[in-house]
């Protein structure tokens, strides 16, 4: 398979990569602002100002309007939109989902995208909405796959995307991804968009969105670039990137502006209710809230702010990937809304799958709350407990003990990991920054790991130094000598 996507940095399933196109290289993860060929709140030539390297437009709208169609065919798509960078074109699937039909077939729209010089084209897939019957989702998926394979036979220089459909059925999403990624022989798909997910995001069904992303990723090669169709709100970028999405697009920046809505990573505000502008972009530093509300150009100013906020967050995500702190950013962002927190918890239910992609070593593990106890690093360590071969007298301590030299082995105890060799104290992830008073969830996982270690080493005699209470302490006391350390430093049996 030709290498058009190269990965340079990774954290969790997120990655910084470079995608080669006929009109230049794109650094991912990135946002593709949606450009309406008929109405442009901001000129495409100005998108570079915000950090945009690539834009997306609708080839079906251009195809249907004779004036736009002729200009695109004669001068090319880039001339029509006045943008010299890569341009992706959608095929009209959105109109198909809204109106039930379009005045073009798959072959016509794929050929048209190539004729106007699109960098990335999309077949006319069937965007099956959430919660439909399985038989409908499966039937429409077959049509999507047939059309994608038909498009492969028409492919020339344009990169070709293969939409992964399947509604809210994980089985169908994974099946579609696997079939599409194996469809080519001498010709291959280049990008894999996850389609029909906008209704999930509009109704804040982030748990279901996580299921869709993970199921699709399971069916794709790890190196395949993934596009999350219609995802343009900055508060969910970190979660989607952490699960392996590389490209995003949305018209939200303009649609929200039209409705007087102001985007932030914590959510969206109605600008009329703002007394202060919580942003340092050029729009917000040159206007106060009252000026922005009363401005004759309010819609354009809001659209510009929304773009600045969108690209600023994506740069934050990239920086987190670089320094290995993406999990911490995800946990912070997902506390912006209860449904996002649901999405994080669902993502953590896939920790065993995520663990295979998680780097072995990176920056300091920061404990951010109960969800941190379920991170892949914790799961990975539990799997490695079997590598600790302990015999004789073993001390596991959360506080130092005076007579530690009497023991054959001394292990530190740190929730959520539990016991680990002292020699690893300064290594990742045991150099974790954790709270002095562990919460119930982290202590539960740590004590479960300790019980697992005892089970794996029946010939060892364990002593546990810990001053605290937990239901699992009763079970531990049956298997080990437990010593509590009082405030005056006196030792006592528990």
UniProtKB/TrEMBL annotation:
Entry keyword Transmembrane helix: no
Stored InterPro entries: ArchSynthase1/Queuine_TRR (IPR050076), TGT-like_sf (IPR036511), TgtA (IPR004804), tRNA_ribo_trans-like (IPR002616)
GO molecular function: pentosyltransferase activity; zinc ion binding
Residues involved in Zn(2+) binding: 279, 281, 284
Active site feature: 90 (nucleophile)
Cofactor(s) this protein cannot do without: Zn(2+)
Binding site for substrate: 125, 196
Cofactor note: Binds 1 zinc ion per subunit.
Biological process annotations from GO: tRNA wobble guanine modification
EC number(s) reported in the record: 2.4.2.48
Pathway: tRNA modification; archaeosine-tRNA biosynthesis
UniProtKB keywords: Glycosyltransferase, Metal-binding, Transferase, tRNA processing, Zinc
Cross-referenced HAMAP family: TgtA_arch (MF_01634)
Protein name: tRNA-guanine(15) transglycosylase
Organism this protein belongs to: Candidatus Methanoperedens nitratireducens
